[in-house]
Amino acid sequence: MRLAGKKIILGVCGSIAAYKSALIVRGLIKAGAEVRVLMTPSATDFISPLTLATLSKAEVVSSVHSGASWNNHVELGLWADAYLIAPVTATTLAKLAHGICDSALVAVYLSARCPVFFAPAMDVDMWQHPTTRENVARLQSFGNRLIDVGEGELASGLSGAGRLAEPEEILDTLADYFERRRDLTGRRILITAGPTLEDIDPVRYLGNRSTGRMGIALAEAAAERGAEVTLILGPTHLSTDAPDVTTVHVRSAEEMYQATVERWPATTDAILSAAVADYRPKTIAPEKIKKEEGSIHMELVRNPDIAAELGRTKTGGQYLIGFALETENGLENARGKLVRKNLDLIVLNSPRDAGAGFGHDTNQIQLVDRNKVTPFELKPKRAVADDILDRLVADKPTLCD
Ligand code: C5P
């Protein structure tokens, strides 16, 4: 039932496991989904397009030259609720990871706005090769979801990891996604992200290295899980066009403060991931400051603390999450902030951990509340976002009025 009415694209690549795609199509159709199948040319050596067309009750696109179908990659990418690529081979993994668009399957991947699931199948050594590991990690870092390989006997006669996940497991993963992932429906979530820039004169500013990547991942994940999201975003080259995310662009800490505080009363939860400047120049020079002999002094004044203000005015039903980026005494400082700013949870990360912090696609966090510390592994920021939202749902499962 969970897949009823869902529009699914199935991409099939040239692996012996391609025969299992027939069972996947059959399962999807039985569950009430609408299915369109794309095959790489080599997939057709393993299973006939006629088989998959008959089972899916729709034309199968197997060549970049399939007439009108080729032009439809954008349309198909927009049509789908999910794109499942199963099995995906080492070659196609590499092409997906690097945008090598020589098949309809990859073209649709690049055009798709829906979540993408990929289920690899290959020999054990190919699966363990650093090239494959890197391509898988790269695809995950873009938010694509891995349906992990199974272990056992492989077509080569070797034994180990590399088998395509069983069709039932693949169907369950998709069904879980559609069911579980609407658990934030009805919530209005405010998220701050990115740096703030504090102007010195018309051409100069004080800034920091935040890109907003973590906050954007949170906004996209929350929206996908059913929340109505307002993203208050400082100046960054990154953005999101996810539906159900309203982005409000701000520049300075004061602008971010105004935009956030005024929306707080109509909000159920806030996640403050922005790297807000603590200080700003006391005055902004109206003209570019000229250089002179000797040193120059600039007076800095404190910016308002958005987190502290939301904590101060928080009502019983509102849940408030802050971030702490600490280079030393992380836990102690995080706990101090939690109490001082009246937060419910702190996401602690350290820029010293490899792969964590500003500019990375991955992050390693600990969730800290008044009673406990929960550590997590290094993960793509999108998966980190889901861990944080899982905790939000666990701590505050029901909505306030
Ligand atoms: O005190 P510190 O800057 O380390 O606190 C970090 C947390 O407080 C983050 O959640 C950050 O977004 C938030 N913060 C804020 N306004 C400020 C400073 C920090 O909302 N002026």
Q: How much is the average pLDDT?
A: 91
Q: Helix content range of the residues, please?
A: 25-40%
Biggest sheet descriptor: 8 strands, mixed
Second CATH tier, the architecture of the largest domain: 3-Layer(aba) Sandwich
CATH homology group of the largest domain:
CoaB-like
DSSP strand count: 21
Span between termini: 31 Å
Structural class: alpha/beta
Q: What's the CATH C level of the largest domain?
A: Alpha Beta
Bound molecules: cytidine-5'-monophosphate
Rg over C-alpha atoms, rounded to the nearest angstrom: 24 Å
Instruction: Quickly count the helices.
Output: 13
What general form does the structure show? elongated
Would you write up a description of this structure?
With 401 residues, the chain is α/β, with parallel strands linked by helices. The protein folds into 2 domains: 7-180, Rossmann fold (3-Layer(aba) Sandwich); 188-395, CoaB-like (Rossmann fold). The protein contains 13 helices and 21 strands. The strands form 6 sheets. It has an 8-stranded mixed sheet, with helices on both faces. Strands 2-1-3-4-5 form a 5-stranded parallel sheet, with helices on both faces. Strand 1, helix 1 (20-30) and strand 2 (34-39) form a beta-alpha-beta unit. It is elongated. Bound molecules: cytidine-5'-monophosphate. Cytidine-5'-monophosphate binds at residues 192, 253, 272, 274, 276, 303, 305-307, 322-324, 337.
